[in-house]
Amino acid sequence: MIEPIDDPQSAAREAAAAIAERTGVDGHDIAIVLGSGWVPAADLLGTTVAEFPATDIPGFAPPSAVGHAGRIRSVDADGRRVLVFLGRTHLYEGRGVDAVVHAVRTAAAAGCRTVVLTNGCGGLDPSWSPGTPVLIRDHLNLFGVTPLRGATFIDMTDLYSARLRSIVREIDPSLDEGVYAQFLGPQYETPAEIAMVRAIGGTLVGMSTVQEAIAAREAGMEVLGLSLVTNLAAGMTGEPLSHEEVLAAGNAAAERMGTLLADFTRRLD
Quick count: other Cβ atoms within 10 Å of Cβ 93? Predict the structure, then answer.
């Protein structure tokens, strides 16, 4: 069993200090975590100030999932300082929940007040073809793992900010919203599990994001969740699921996603 970090906030401050030293940027405004297949979108966000392996920063481990670059980039988006995490740690990697949310806590310690959490996911709405972006309105934490400790009671009512979703819809009014259900993975869901998700109101399924969003709310950050539907969920087409399909859909949608995120960062107050 992975032992939790003794003082995760102190670890985050140490990591933020190391990022400031590597980038020459005292503080950042916005953090973006790019999920499976999203990495090419980072090139459209703005001017790269610095980029380096995440493992150069205390507390970060190399990602094991293909499609996660394991790098950190500082971007100047017309004067807004954007801290981009090219990849993430997943619970299924076995490093514990503190490792999963370390990037979000580090971003908060680096001054970010807004975080954009992206992912590649399965979609339960048959009208969402692969490559469709969907705003996360709410989530289902299906196995209950949380980064919170002890009697830390945090309100989750507006976890995925309605204000931020409205800004994105001003950019692209065609975007739908969905409820994201997180499974542990790394196996994909069974058709019966997808039927369960549909019965309890889920419309998106994946293996990330939920714990990061909770940690961001604990840190006082405003959260935007954005899923890229990379495949229809298990049992909907009769075809097997593959990670290659996820990456291909992400690469195909990279320009649209990068442009959307770039416009969003420039519209924030």
Answer: 18
Token pair recorded at residue 266: 């420039």
Q: Is the dihedral of CA 3, 5, 116, 217 positive or negative?
A: positive
Q: Which of 3, 21, 189, 222 is catalytic?
A: 189
Contact 227, 33 (CB under 8 A): no
The answer to whether 189 is a known catalytic residue is yes
Strands 132-141 and 222-232 come out as antiparallel
Instruction: List all residues 6 or more positions away from 255 whose beta carbon is below 8 Å from its beta carbon.
Output: 41, 44
User: SS3 letters for 92-104?
Assistant: HHCCCHHHHHHHH
Determine the Cα–Cα distance for residues 145 and 141; give it in Å rounded to an integer: 7
Helix (H, G, I), strand (E, B) or coil at 161: coil
* Three-class DSSP category at 194: helix
State the Rg of the chain over Cα. Answer: 17
The dihedral sign for the CA sequence 253, 268, 68, 201: negative
- Residues, the chain, total? 269
pLDDT digits (tens, 9 = 90+) for 63-95: 766 555 689 999 999 999 999 999 899 999 999
What does the pLDDT look like over 26-60, one tens digit per residue?
Answer: 999 999 999 766 777 888 999 999 999 999 999 99
CA–CA distance, 217 with 65 (Å, rounded to integer): 26
Tokens of 197: 């998700």
CA–CA separation, 67 vs 73, rounded Å? 16
Lowest mean pLDDT: which of 90-94, 201-205, 220-224?
90-94
Q: Please state, in angstroms and rounded to a whole number, the distance separating the CA atoms of residues 110 and 71.
A: 16
